[in-house]
Sequence to fold (184 residues):
Amino acid sequence: MLTSTLSSSTDRIRAHYAHLNALHGPTVIAEASSLLDALLDTAERQGYDRDGEALGWLVTAAAETAASRYDRPTTDRTAADLAEMRAALRAAFNERGLTVTDCRAPMGIAVERTPGGPGWGTGGKAGLAVTLWTNTTWELTINAARARAFPVVAPVTEDGARDVAALVRDIATGKAADPFRTAR
Fold:
């Protein structure tokens, strides 16, 4: 359980998500943080210490509730939906200065390895790829024929594509932790 050693709801949510096997986009983190603030405000009005250790379970409740909106679609996406989201992701990669390249992962959009950033695959020359299927959330993988994939919990919308592209940029440039090199 997370206690008051973390200063803000956002810090608490990020710490919770850091221990999971999925990556979480900024929209989900913001929603979970807002929900946690509301839960803590309610607890405080009821006489509980907002930083008390006993309220640590509210972090889990807020984090899991916010993420549950985006973990799986309620109905399968159509081919047109997938094409629209792939185009949005491609545009979001371009907006963030990432170079889109041929993708070896089925249903994916790939970016080249960034100069000075980490590399993956044989010889460290591969970049990253993001896939989206009819019945899943976004998934981050290495641009290789076979590689581990991490769910990326984010809205499957144009804004969500921007969230995913920002996360990929941060990993590709070494600004964010590399899930492929971190034990999860």
